Structures are given as C-alpha cells and as structure tokens.
Amino acid sequence: MEGQQKYYVDENGQWEFPLGLRQLAMVQMDLNGRNKYGQDSGVGNVGNGLRMRFPIDRQRLEQSIQRVVDENDALRLILVQKGDTYTQRVLTHYQFQLQVYEAQGDTEQERLQSAVAIASKQVNTVIDWFNQPSFRIFLVQLAENDYLFVWLAHHWIGDGSTTGLIMDQVFRYYEHPDAPKPETDTYLHFLRDETAFFQSDKGKKQLAYWKQEVEGYQMLDITKAAVGAPASGYDHMYQIDRSGVEQLAQRYHTSMFNVILLAYHLGVAYLLDNPDTIIGVTSANRTSKRYFRTMGYIAHSLQHRMRIREEDKLADLLEASKDTFSKNMANLAAGHYYDRTQFCLTYQNFVAGAETSEKQLEKVPIPTKRSVEQFFLLVFEGADQLALAMVGNGLIYTEHFLESLKGYMESVVALLSQQPDATLAQLRAYYEKNQ
C-alpha cells in the first residue's frame, strides 16, 4: 500500500491508530472554536516565545530541531477523518525547515512589538492537521544577535509539559549535538496503554465518575467579567501575602494549593454571579518513569466543581473542596471535559523534567485566540509572597476583573482566618465593605 511507504507501521502491521481521550477532546474543542470564530482560526493552537540575545547558528539550530522531530512520534502525527470519527498516523520522516522572519521598526520596542505581532499571526493561523504535522518552530529577527524563538503546536499533539520538554531538548541538542537521546517510551506506547486502561473495569468506572461530575453544568457567562476599561497587555502579575495562606493550610491540615483553589472558586462565583463553577486544575501526571520525558498529550486536567449557597460556611467549603479534589485525583486518568473549562489553575510549575538551558532566554507571551474564552491563574510560591500570574484576553478580563479577583481571594483568606464560621453572605459583605 502506497500510504505505508509514508507512514510508520508498528510490529503488528498497524499504521493507523485511535486518538487518545484528551486528543479527541482537543480536536472537538478546536472544531467548536472554528464554528464560532471562523474556519481559519487557530483556536486550538498554543504558542510560546523566547527572546535570545546572542549569536545563532541557524543551520545548527535547524539540525537540533530536526533531531527532536525524528525522535518524537507526537511531532509527526497526522489526523485522519473517517466520517464522524478520527484516527491518526505517524509520518516516518518529516523534513523540517527553519523559517526566519524580519521584525520592523525604528526602536527596540517597536521591533519587539512587530516580532510579537508576527508570532501571534502565525500562532493564530489554523494548522492543516490532515496533511502536515501540527507544530511550527520559527525565528523572528529583531536585530543582529537578537531573535524571538517561537514554538507553536495544536493542543491535540501536546500539553504544557510537552512545551517545556521541546524547548529543553532543542536547546540541549543545539548546545551539545552529541548528547544522548533521553530514555523514554514513545507517545504511541502511551496511547496504547491508555486505550487498554479505558477498556478495563477501573477505566470504565473513572469515565463514569467524570460524566456524572460534570452532568448538568452550565457554562459561565464570561461577558460579566468585562467591566471597566480593557486590561493592557496579555498577562498580569500580582503578589499576595503567603503567611495567611500557609497558616490556613496548617490549621486545616491541607495544602496552600487547596486554600488558593477555594479562594479562586469563590472569587469567580462572586464576580460572575454564578454559584456553580468549574476550575480546570492542571496535573502533569508524569509519575511513570516510562513517560516522564515523552512528548505528547499526557498531562491531565481535573474539572474541579463547586456548588455553593449563601448560607454555606467558609470552613465547611474548604473541607468540601478538599474532598472533591481528592476524588478528582483518584480518577485522574480519565479527566477530559475541557469544553467545560473556562477558568484554569496551575500551581507552581507543572513542566516535568525540564532543565534550564545554558543560554539566557527571556520568555515573551504570545497572544492566542485560545485565550479569548479561557482564563489562567498561575501561582508560584515565594519565600514571603505568592506570585499570581493572571492570563487572559484583556477585552474580557479587564483590569477591574483582575483586581477584583485578587481582592476577593485575599478576602477569603482573611475572613477564613478571622472567622471560620463566616458564611458566603458574610464574605460578600466583608469584601464589599473593604473595597
């Protein structure tokens, strides 16, 4: 068969493979987004930019990228549609070519803005996943020895951990061309294991758990977040005191993460005036050494749901949230309802196994269409403060929304510390009084 000359064939003679659970969810999310924002919209794309202010050997960089592509089947996946179903194939080889764009502008700031605009246009352009691999890597040159390195991919082939692994591996091979390949199994092996799990009794129970967990959920009206002037830029950093969160965690025998998760839920519920909220909690899920450094969609997102009432007490809600999270984690392998996830939480850094390059690299945010309806809260622990990175489209998640969310989360921590039996109605009054 002619196609078998082009595509990988496994030991059983198979050259077409089923999609993983999360892959299929991301394909569907993209199709829904195209129907809403246009067929040319790269709604399912994710992108990252690194500014590199040092000389670049383009040929050497291209060779290091080619090696990463050759070693990772997830980067050579092709989507196949058969009626209403999808499968995937793996190209035996994909010849990568490094494109270099030129930023325009008279000043450094103008050239940086131009570079981000070029990157954003590429990231937000739909990928032809039926005929080519679902990733792109390119450079935008700002000046001599000044580049923006951009990696983008469709979310169906990789998660946030994959992004870190790709970046890490490309620059490791660039700096050390003879470095050995990491010991890790392939993505197809992972998908085979996942398929077998979901056919087992345990897997079926986990799938049933999540179906019940999200049943009846109504999407939040995010237009209620658009109060006041649009937020400037793409992401914002805030600081909150660590000690109050830490003391609550110790008092209730839980983690600071669980305290933040409750405060985030209650803040979103208040600002969007909805007592039923889902927060997507990312989990690297790379406990298996076989797949610790495997590139592909391995990370899982837990759909953590809370339904609250005005008479509920804050201390009781923290216990309920902890209990829900424990149940979520017990069913980690089957969480996949990304279409219910408008608000996400990442606590600290969930990139598994990433190592710092010897080169100095500066992260540059690349706005994506995926951010139109999703809001991300990234929390990083510091010695005295918790850093909150709030990432979302500024036209929807305005400065007022961001400041209000931070303020409401701080009110949750303060009132729970002072008055554990306080109700949600009292929390609302406490927050509004202190504004």
- What is the β-strand count? 14
Q: Helicity level, as a percent range?
A: 25-40%
Radius of gyration over C-alpha positions, nearest whole angstrom? 23 Å
Number of helices: 12
Provide the low-confidence segments as ranges.
349-356
Mean pLDDT: 87
Strand order of the largest sheet: 8-14-13-11-9-10
- N/C terminus separation: 70 Å
Structure description:
By secondary structure, the chain is an alpha+beta fold. The chain contains twelve helices and 14 strands. The chain has helices at residues 3-6, 21-37, 58-71, 108-123, 160-175, 187-198, 201-214, 242-251, 256-271, 314-330, 399-418, 424-433; strands at residues 17-18, 45-52, 77-82, 85-90, 99-102, 135-143, 146-154, 235-241, 276-283, 300-307, 343-347, 361-364, 375-381, 385-391. The protein has a six-stranded mixed β-sheet. Strands 5-6-7-2-12 form a five-stranded mixed β-sheet, covered by helices on one side. 39% of the residues are buried.
Task: Label this structure with key terms.
435 residues, 14 strands, 38% helix
SSE order and pairing:
Layout: H1 3-6, E1 17-18, H2 21-37, E2 45-52, H3 58-71, E3 77-82, E4 85-90, E5 99-102, H4 108-123, E6 135-143, E7 146-154, H5 160-175, H6 187-198, H7 201-214, E8 235-241, H8 242-251, H9 256-271, E9 276-283, E10 300-307, H10 314-330, E11 343-347, E12 361-364, E13 375-381, E14 385-391, H11 399-418, H12 424-433
Parallel strand pairs: 5-6, 9-11, 11-13
Antiparallel strand pairs: 1-4, 2-7, 2-12, 3-4, 6-7, 8-14, 9-10, 13-14
Helix pairs in contact: 3-5, 8-9, 8-11, 9-10, 9-11
Short description:
With 435 residues, the protein is α+β, with helices and mostly antiparallel strands.
